[in-house]
UniProtKB/TrEMBL annotation:
Involved in formation of the rod shape of the cell. May also contribute to regulation of formation of penicillin-binding proteins. InterPro entries: Cell_shape_determining_MreD (IPR007227), MreD_proteobac (IPR026034). The keyword Transcription regulation does not apply. This is Rod shape-determining protein MreD. It comes from the Bacteria. PANTHER family: ROD SHAPE-DETERMINING PROTEIN MRED (PTHR37484). The chain crosses the membrane at residues 6-22, 34-57, 69-87, 99-116, 128-147. Belongs to the MreD family. It is found in: Cell inner membrane; Cell membrane. The keyword Cell inner membrane applies. Keywords: Cell inner membrane, Cell membrane, Cell shape, Membrane, Transmembrane, Transmembrane helix. Pfam families: MreD (PF04093). It is a multi-pass membrane protein.
Amino acid sequence: MKSSFVFILTLIVGLMLEALTFPETLLWYRPEWALLVILYWVIALPFRVGVGVAWVLGLMVDLLQGGIIGQHSLTYVIIAYSCAVFYKRLRMYHRWQQGIFVALLISLNQLIDFWIDFYAGNAEPTLMIFMPALITGLLWPWSFIVLRSVRRMYSIR
């Protein structure tokens, strides 16, 4: 009971960080917090956390950001599935190597989001769409340490 509550609480914290407002000049440097939390849990508990949780969290991000409903759900499911396929291999890598893989997955997320926004008429082409992927990849080692310590402290399995 307690471990499920803490797990859900980490997802809520990820959503809260996702909802933080940034100044217009720093929008491109905003990390993908919710996806970062999902990626950790998919790697740590692949049989408990998967595409279903990613889909629900993606819907919540869609509602928070007021975009096209299902846009983040689609990308989160694709990223969570990709991560679930490689979770055994990812566990063997060092954290900074995992950060590179996370940055690549977030880049895929940003590319799909851009593609959807572009065809909806809400985006202009720029390479800055990959900046959140770089920032999120750099944050991966620290978020991994924090989430792993939470998982161990509350015996989340």
